[in-house]
Amino acid sequence: MDTTSLWLKEPPDGLPRSRSEGRAEVVVIGGGVTGCSCALTLAERGVRVRLYEAREIAGGASGRNGGFALRGAAAPYDEARRDLGDERARLVMELTERALDRIEELAGDAFRRVGSLRLAFDEREREALRREHDALREHGFAVEWVDQLEPPLDRLYRGAILHPHDGALQPARWVRRLAAHAASAGAEIREREAVTIEELDTDAIVVAGDGFIPQLLPELPVRATRGQVLATEPLRARLYERPHYARGGYDYWQQLPDGRLVLGGKRDSSFETEHTDVEETTAPIQDRLEAFVEQLVGYRPEVTDRWAGVWGTTPDLVPLVGEVRDRVWVAGGYSGHGNALGLACGDLVARAILGERPPELEIFDPARAVLPWQSASHG
Q1: Pairwise CA distance, residues 39 & 182, whole Å
Q2: What pLDDT does residue 20 have?
Q3: Do the domain assignments include residue 270?
Q4: Tally of structural domains, the chain
Q5: How far is CA 208 from CA 31, 51, 76, 246, in A?
Q6: 169 φ, ψ (degrees, to nearest 5)
């Protein structure tokens, strides 16, 4: 089966094209959400910016994920407060809530603001959900506790929390539109052109590859991590109105407006094979995903699409944004939580190049002391 994502199979609209052979002031490597966000901010400020994408816009993780637009970073908010401290955790949460508002402003019908549901698989996870719920409420963030679940969730899970301002994406359509905004603002976008850091003559280089950061900046603590996804034919009934995730993000799914189910995860069944930058599906994980579909819908609909995406995981599950070599900057390492963070961090790194110092840059500083390696969860 072709492993192009369902999202990327949608024909693109075409980008405004302008090709200049002159020297760019800033070069961005990577045409996902981060790179396009960075290019947009720089172009709007009058910087001559050129973006290189080795494949097509959104061809990497930005067009190969599960289509979740979630606030926060990879760690639940109670854990973020513990690890970062209250002030920094709040800053990151507010940053991503603003990013969701900006997605809503720019994405058009590629974004549906329907909320997301984090589910408790067992009593231990229910307690974890309660901790996150209480931590969010203490800081004034909107969240709802859900005790009574509708079938079939009532037999599979033990409660949930609703994040009401999250949403669902057609991620490839969204990032293509973001690229079009950047091009309209004056950014030059070159698809299907691979470049290396060493060959570029420019004032600043931004590496915005997330899962492919280790290939370009091997000195950074970023581990390539694969997530596998499938999509089914339209289901017989409307069962799920928003993105759902459980087991710490190792199971995640959403039902699309046309009735199809997009479902991913089960990476925890084979950690040793999923720490890779190879965008291929594997039978063991796909078999588990198919079995999970049957649990969620009561039968096995036809699987129409299978794909994999690669993201970058950091040891402390916090992104890296900043200068890492002379004139070389990075934005990435979202640990499977990059749709909103990627938009925010692309803008942050652009503002840093322009000389601004938003407070979040200190939190995401690549030079920070990092924790021992641990496995991040969802994608």
Answers
A1: 6
A2: 82
A3: yes
A4: 1
A5: 8, 10, 24, 29
A6: -120, 150
For residue 19, the model assigns a pLDDT of: 79
User: Cα-atom radius of gyration of the chain, to the nearest Å?
Assistant: 20
Q: Do residues 255 and 265 make contact, with C-beta atoms less than 8 angstroms apart? A: no
DSSP per-residue string spanning 113-139: ---EEEE-SSHHHHHHHHHHHHHHHHT
229: closest CA among 288, 168, 289, 310?
Answer: 289
**Any domain includes 254:** yes
CATH code at 131? Answer: 3.30.9.10
Q: Are 166 and 115 in contact (CB under 8 A)?
A: yes
Domain with 263, as residue range(s), is: 115-164+223-313
Is residue 9 within 8 Å of residue 260, measured between CB atoms?
A: no
333-373 pLDDT, tens digit per residue, is 999 999 999 999 999 999 999 999 999 999 999 999 555 54
Q: Which two tokens stand for residue 294?
A: 């049957």
Ranges of residues in the chain with a pLDDT under 50 are 373-379
The answer to whether position 28 is within a domain reads no
Structure tokens at 84: 């970062």
In angstroms, the CA 65 to CA 141 distance is 26
Query: Is residue 135, in this structure, part of any structural domain at all?
Result: yes
Query: Do residues 25 and 204 touch, judged by C-beta distance below 8 A?
Result: yes
Main-chain dihedrals φ then ψ at residue 266, nearest 5 degrees: 60, 15
Q: How far is CA 8 from CA 42, 93, 174, 305, 351, in A?
A: 26, 29, 11, 11, 30
